[in-house]
Amino acid sequence: MITTRKLLSSLAILLLASSSLWAQLRVTFVNVGQGDAVFIEFPNGRTALIDGGPSGTLIDAFLKSKGVSKIDYVALTHPHSDHYRGLKKVFTNYQVDHYYDTKAENVDAAGDNNLRELAAVEPGCATHYPKPGDVLNWDPKVTVKVFNACWEPVQMHENDETNNCSLVIRLYYNGNGILLTGDANSEIEQELMTHFKSGLQSNILKVGHHGSRTSTGADFLSRVRPRYSFISVGRNNKYGHPHNETLDRLSASGSEIYTTLSGTQVMTIPPPGYGVEPHISVLDYWQACQPPDPSEPGEGLKDLVSLRQLSGALAPGALTR
Fold first, then answer.
1. pLDDT digits 0-9 by tens, 15-57
2. CA–CA dist 83, 55 (Å, integer)
3. Euclidean distance between CA atoms 151 and 27, whole angstroms
4. Nearby residues of 293 by Cβ (< 8 Å), 6 or more positions away
5. Does residue 52 fall inside a structural domain?
6. Is the residue at 4 inside a domain?
7. Which residues contact 275 (CB under 8 A, 6 or more apart)?
8. Strand order in 70-75's β-sheet?
9. Cα–Cα 20 to 30 A to 198, which of 139, 216, 284, 288?
């Protein structure tokens, strides 16, 4: 017969295990095609969504699959449609408590202003314009620091100018740095190296601008030193992302390369006391939205030479040196 003391001890162990699972940091690079969307689940139970991709359909499908009804923090890195369009449906279908934005005005687009109007009328939602150096109070156990932002009003026509206004944010939890770079180009990378120096080091990197050759410079990689790199990219995109030059630099840095072409990438960081090694897995809900191209190689392609034959489209799976 199980004594009361043993029963209480067993219950305590179960509760401890449950609380430890809850204390994980989970960062999901959502497969939204040629665009960006990063969903973050914090140890304190709060959630954040950084960008929403080019279509509300895909990010909405992902959030519904997670059972989400409210998002604590939503951020737009910069006003390009492959980042803001999906957020319109987010404001329509979900409660958002805080909205983070730049004051960059893309004069050639109206959709970014439509999004900002939705944020302004969202019940109970506060809008914030963070500055470089700001620390965001999203979770007391996770350091969330802003490295780049356009916090003063600026109007622009050029894509590069808009990209360089990207919110760049670094998360730090249980020995793991996670650098989210939006579409910031090499010019901003140089500025970050000047201002933040060793604070840039992050073993996990969201590769800038979908793997464009204009981002992720060799000097930047030597400062960041990513062990894992994630590229959010669309199949057969017209830009040829990710570019071979970027893949070469990432490979030379020793980083493992993951891409959303094989599905939504989920990275889980354990709580202190349970190790520090991130766990990486893939969600395949995307397959219901867009079946893979049967003419492309299957899982496990590791050869960068074979990769070149895909004309800029990464094959499923991780790529290593």
1. 444 455 569 999 999 999 999 999 999 999 999 999 999 999 9
2. 9
3. 25
4. 235, 236
5. yes
6. no
7. none
8. 126-128, 95-100, 70-75, 47-50, 38-41, 25-29, 264-269, 279-283
9. 139
> Three-state SS across 203-271?
CEEECHHHHCCCCCCHHHHHHHCCCEEEECCCCCCCCCCCCHHHHHHHHHHCCEEEEHHHCEEEEEECC
Q: What is the DSSP letter of 315?
A: P
Query: CA dist 74 to 90, 103, 275, Å?
Result: 9, 15, 29
In a domain, 210, yes or no: yes
Range of the domain at 276: 24-308
Question: Can you give the pTM of this predicted structure?
Answer: 0.85
The number of distinct structural domains making up the chain is: 1
For residue 168, list its beta bridge partners.
Answer: 148
Tokens matching residue 172: 């730090």
Q: Which residue has the tokens 């958002």?
A: 96
**Is residue 251 in a domain?**
yes
Residue type, position 239, single letter:
Y
Residue 115 burial (CB count, 10 A): 25
SS3 category, 275: coil
Cis peptide before 271 (omega within 30 of 0): no
CATH number of the domain residue 286 falls in: 3.60.15.10
φ/ψ of residue 96, rounded to 5: -120, 130
The pLDDT tens digits of the residues spanning 244-263 come to 999 999 999 999 999 999 89
Q: Hey, what's the torsion of the CAs at 72, 59, 166, 205, to 10 degrees? A: 90
